[in-house]
Structure formats: C-alpha cells, structure tokens
C-alpha cells in the first residue's frame, strides 16, 4: 500500500520522520470498550485535539514525522496503535505481515462493502475523550491509507468537527463496488452527510491521481453525499508529472512529503494543517 518515492528524492531529500521520544503511551479503555477494541495510544502537545490514525503498516517514523509536525503546529495529538509495532520502520515483510493480519481480522473488515467497522467504535471513543479535555467544541481526525475512510466514519460522533481522508484504501478496491465504497455503512454515511449539511462537520480528501489503491470513485461517492463540505486535493501522479511522482505514489502526507519549496505534497500537508486550524481553533 505504500508508494515509491518521487524523483525529487534523488536530490538527497527524504520524508520528515520522528521518534517516540516525548510521547506518552497509555491503554485506551474508555466507553466500556471490549478488550478486543482496546489499544495503546500515544499523546503529545497542547491545543485543539487531533486524532492521527496511522497508515499501514503502523506508527512508522514517517507517521511520527507528521505527528510531530501537528504538535509543532499547535495541536494536542493522539496517535492510536491498532496494528503494527510503534516506531518500527517500513519494510516489505513488515508491510505484508500487517496486511495479512488486517485481511483476516473482523475488527477491520478489509473486503466488506456497506460495512460498519468495529475499529471505528474505538476511534469515536478516543475522539470523544480527547474533545472533552482540549480547547474548542471538538476535534479533528486524520486517516491515511487503509484507515483513510475511518476518519470520516468517526464523524458519526458529534465530537468530530473535521475529518481528513487521505488516500483511503478500505475496502481493498477489488471490483467496482469496492472502488466506490466510502469505507463505511450507508447508515454511517447518512449520519455524516446530515451533519455536513447542518454545517457541523467538514472533510478534506487527498489522493494521487494515478493511485489505484485509492480510486477516484471513492471520492466521487463521498462528494455526492457531502457536497461542498468535502474538499478534494488530487496530486498529479500521471506519467511525466512535473513533480516527478512515481506511478505508485500513495502516501500524500507522509512518505511522499519533501521539505522543498513548491513541493505538491508539502503544500497538501500545509493545507491540511490550515484546514484543521480553521475548524478546530476556538
């Protein structure tokens, strides 16, 4: 599910990374969650709350690089760890092992359409808890890759005011029905659309134009239901694109970011931070 680095990486630049230093780790057991839906969470920062759901294969140094940037941007950040080994770098074997676990887990329902995924119960509880103890009326949730759509599914809870849906890859896009599936059930999508229509929640979607793991049809479904409450940023990864992104570019906010002036993924990250500040700052 990860993408190859853009050609701009040839200059010696690399994506921003972070470590677990300074993060507080605790087990989240709120709202009477059953044991199978209890996971460790890492927290750092001050200010409005943001729940950052890691992409596959877990809380990698690149995910922590984004988390640190959010902390530096003035947010209290909670990073749940529902899969993978926190802090472990990406490798082919590690990624495949995590995907294999996801595929057989009832918690994630990797191939199901029109599905309410049990993991979202945990994420909603984490968001509500964070909202109750941080400034403002609610929190933001960022999902990426397999968890991209989970951010919006979390917005069923009134505590979520802003959802960032980055390269959503669930359910795995095998066949047209899965490609257009919004990563949540019809009932969940209806509730989120109702909240969006009332001005209670907004969403930001990000993807690469040639990303087959996160098909455009999924964003089209969300746009039909959410209208102008769903802002879309689509980065050009077509052959010969000016930024040099590879055909398999996938991770908009992590592995594809370069601290280079005018870099499109860096601009997308900047827009994401501004989006969160607009909707979360008291």
UniProtKB/TrEMBL annotation:
One Pfam family, short name: DLH
Domain Dienelactone hydrolase, chain residue ranges per copy: 47-166
SUPFAM superfamilies: alpha/beta-Hydrolases
Gene Ontology terms, MF aspect: hydrolase activity
Highest rank taxon of the organism: Bacteria
Residue span of region Disordered: 1-25
Keywords from the named record: Hydrolase
Ranges of biased composition (kind: Low complexity): 1-16
InterPro entries attached to this UniProt entry: AB_hydrolase_fold, Dienelactn_hydro
Identification of the protein by name: Dienelactone hydrolase family protein
Organism: Herbiconiux moechotypicola
